[in-house]
Amino acid sequence: MEAGDFYEKYSTEDFILDERFQDWVMLGRDDKFWGIFCRKHPEKSDMVHSAREFIQTLHLLEHVPGLEQEQKALERFGKQISGRSGPKMTEINLKPATGRKISLRTLRRLAASVLILFLLSGASWILFKKNPVLVETGYGQLKKIMLPDNSLVYLNANSRLYFEKSLLGSFSREVRLEGEAFFKVEKDSGVDGYRKFLVHTNGMAVEVLGTTFNVRDRHAVSSVTLQTGKVLVNMNEGEQVTLQPGERVEINRKARKVVKNKVKPEQYTSWRNLRYTFDQTPVSELVRIIGDNYGLEVVIEDTKIADSKLSGVLEADNLQTFVNAVSFALNISIRKEGKQLIFEPK
Amino acid sequence: MPVASSDKFQEKSLVTGDRAAWEELYRTWFRKLFNYGRKFSPDEGLIEDVIQDIFLTLWQQGNMGIRSLGSYLFTSFRNNMLRKINVGRQQGAELLNDDYHFELQLAPDQQMIRDEQREENSRKIARAMTELTAHQREFIFLRFYQQLSYEEISSIMDISVKAVYKLAARAIHLLRRELESEQFMLIVTLLFSRRALR
Predict the structure, then answer these.
(1) What is the rounded CA–CA span in Å between residue A192 and residue B30?
(2) pLDDT of residue A96
(3) Number of CB pairs < 8 Å for A and B?
(4) Closest-CA residue in chain A for B168?
(5) Quick check: ipTM above 0.85?
(6) What's the whole-model pTM score?
């Protein structure tokens, strides 16, 4: 019996479960074998097709640590090993000894044929295959992410950023955002002019070439605040808005309302430096920040407090500092009860 | 990301023991294990501690007797992770093999051109995914994301290869049941509508 003849009797599910078949779909291994098999058994082509499709639908999310998080961990590791003795492995040699010398010409020929084989075999596909990636922040957490195209993203608390990249680092300049993020997009020259960068949220897509801007998508309200450059906001209904620096657009999906106005961008972007800029900001905005970024509900025991406004710059890298500053500025007392923050007069 | 392809470089770095190579090794594996760990727990501090611990052990003991660095790191990371999670949860109780959390999500579609059928299929698979056991989900992750072989998975999850096959069959069957049922419904409606036309 020829090797692999039992595949004739396979069902779609059998194909999905077969390790060799999986390796073909995921890594492009054994391309030739499966090509011949499909040609020899056209009656199996439907099954092979749906088995392939099924495996490809198992497109799983990747959680990626933030840039600073990774750096800190690395430094911690470096510190710990510098004080200790290194690995004792003088006696073990995992690599076979390279006794024989190979001439440069043979080496070059070898490299060329390996390259051709690699390209022909379809295995190169694995290098270009896009893998999904998720970077996520919890309450009270902030992450800085460097994308493969050198664009920077500051991800605010309680937010998620999705994108895809290949092993070689190729990246389509397209991301999806839930929550809030500040983008510093680098210009990227493609074959025909600059390549655009796209940020999708539930209600819109922001299109840019190279700029700095803030995107927020929470509670069915999306907003974009532009600091420098120029952006184009595409709404779901096909409407478009262009923003100039210092402009902000807010799209309310529930109320079906679009508002564009002039703002001080720092007010919407300074959070990335753990700084909150307030300018006659109503307490309701504080309530929103505490809810979105720290996951706490605010209970206000006095209408006077609810009506007050706040101006100034508040620096806080944790909830305690934030609460201390607010209670000082508003001259109120704040206490925490479970998942609630109670604002009351002193 | 296949484990095998990067092992060569990493094994060399362990032999020479030079610092830059160690840092490179740490960086690569920090990302891989962080991703794996996030499926067990959202506690990123805990995940970082576990990675730190197993790397310190590796640094101190060297790679004596380690056949595949990838399998070794995955296995010891998983064991340490489960132990820590269990200590934090309930003291004294023995950890049952399938009594843990393993979260797995499909990636949202990035495509600009929408394929309704494909989207519908992913939605169904995502729904069915929540009904799998932690063990079944972990298998899906190790095989279809990490692209480890059935044999490697058996040693990482500490079950026999036969058990891995059983796990796989059950998981795939459950995921596909959702898709099949819908297709069957479609055929039925087609038959009915034909009859109505007559």
Answers:
(1) 38
(2) 31
(3) 146
(4) A17
(5) no
(6) 0.60
